Structure formats: C-alpha cells, structure tokens
Amino acid sequence: MPTAESRTPSTAPLAGAIAVDDANALLALARSAGMLVTLDGQIGREKYQSVAGSLRSFQCFAAALRDALAAGQAG
Fold it and tell me: Rounded to whole angstroms, what are the CA distances from 8 to 3, 47, 48, 50, 57?
C-alpha cells in the first residue's frame, strides 16, 4: 500500500484539459491528489464547495496542476 509520500496523482485524463476556470476538472484533480471535496450547499445553480486536506495532498495538487497546465501548453 503506497504511503502519502509515494502517492502521485494521475493527471493523464486531465492533461491538456485543465483550464483555470474549469471547476470540475480542478475538483477532480484535488480529489485525485487526496483532498476531500464536499458540497456545502447550493443556491440555484451556484454550488458552494469546500476543499480540505493535508499539506502533503495540497503539494500533490499543486504539482499535478502545474504538470497538467504544462502538458496543455506543450500540446
């Protein structure tokens, strides 16, 4: 079983598909990095969500986002 330090989130399905304004892709990336995403509420079409996790999962998210954005620029 991998430890938190050896876990690397998969960005393959998100590579080239990440845009700063693509909330669903960002939330999926946060989940794959080990972060908890909760729906706090919804008013009309607007959803209010929280993202929480360890510092390590946040670092994994930041690295995966950087890699996905770089792959999108290269392609």
Answer: 10, 28, 27, 22, 10
Give dist(CA 15, CA 13) in Å, integer. Answer: 6
Give domain status of residue 10, yes or no.
Answer: no
Number of domains in the chain: 1
Give the range of the structural domain holding residue 62, as residue numbers without chain letter.
23-74
Q: What is the tens place of the pLDDT at every residue in 20-69?
A: 678 898 999 999 999 999 999 999 999 999 999 999 999 999 999 999 88
Residue 63, domain member (yes or no): yes
Tens of pLDDT, residue by residue over 1-30, are 444 444 444 444 444 456 667 889 899 999
In a domain, 44, yes or no: yes
